[in-house]
């Protein structure tokens, strides 16, 4: 089976982890601080705050913006459920806007009509590693005085005109094993706003400004030294892995003619966390056929968030036709850097038979 994703762990990562174990400093410490510094520089921002997961980063970022009960946050229904759930956990309510059928990202043209006096933020999701239209998003946010919280959990290093995602508003990243770089579990918040960064640091560490001095409610969302050690090594390898992902994606797009392949706008730097195509009919049958052929394809995501049982119980009954249609048509193919040329040829051959 050619897997849909594969974390790449080399001798450098193993040596870094062993060095942490031998140091005796396992909880948040100097390696976390170094990882924060390096990741901030990578994204082109002043501050980065490490967390225990991407979900923790999203929740912490929302709370740092003082979003809570009674507020609304505009976001996409076509995403992993953590995006919307993090809004729920603040006591706020997600307001879903339909997506653009080419990028699969939230459609800025429909955002303004969803803004109400309760709206406090927009949470765009850079789905599959493809940046949202952040220029349009920033214009809307500036006009209405809204915060931008970028869910960049799938988009490490993605760019618009050379500018990294995570630098437009408050960025949130995940380092789960399937992501373009991993710390096993872990997350990161990026921002140029010192006040937001300081609030995030308090929230992720029990509200402590210094040991046993608690200034605010908080959680244990800290990153460990083990995670940071992995992250420091993986971050150095990320540019080459991104180059390979783009090369693999280009090869697939050249070879596949019977499915709708990804379209990338000029000036946009897609990092292909997933290589996602659309199948005209019987997507689920296509997935079964690819599995039988040894191709680890998967549907991301087969049920939009607003149609999930939890959200139906919460009263989300509105129709979002493009997101609903895409959820029935999309499937993602392996594109990760560990693929061989033989793997790529096999993927093209088997998809061409659908």
Reading the helices and strands in chain order gives HHEHEHEEHEEEEEHEEHEEHHHEH
Across the major sheet, the strand order is 1-9-8-5-4-2-3
Low-confidence stretches: none
Q: Could you name the CATH class of the largest domain?
A: Alpha Beta
The global form is: globular
How many E strands?
A: 14
What class, by secondary structure content? alpha/beta
- Looking at CATH, which topology of the largest domain would you report? Aspartate Aminotransferase, domain 2
Proportion of helical residues: 25-40%
Computed CA radius of gyration, to the nearest angstrom: 20 Å
Give the gist of this structure.
Helix content is 38%, strand content 15%. It has 354 residues and is of the alpha/beta class.
Tell me about this structure.
- The structure is a single chain.
- The protein is an alpha/beta fold and 354 residues long.
- The protein has 2 domains: 11-232, Type I PLP-dependent aspartate aminotransferase-like (Major domain) (Aspartate Aminotransferase, domain 2); 238-352, Aspartate Aminotransferase, domain 1.
- It contains 11 helices and 14 strands.
- The chain has helices at residues 11-23, 30-43, 54-64, 82-89, 134-144, 194-204, 225-255, 283-292, 309-313, 321-329, 341-352, and strands spanning 47-51, 72-75, 93-96, 119-123, 147-151, 159-160, 163-164, 170-174, 187-191, 208-210, 213-214, 268-269, 275-278, 330-333.
- The strands form 4 sheets. A 7-stranded mixed beta sheet has the order 1-9-8-5-4-2-3, with helices on both faces. It has a 3-stranded antiparallel beta sheet with strand order 7-6-12, with no helix packed on it. A two-stranded antiparallel ribbon has the order 10-11.
- A hairpin with a 2-residue loop joins strand 10 (208-210) and strand 11.
- Helix 2 packs parallel to helix 7, helix 3 crosses helix 4 and helix 3 crosses helix 6.
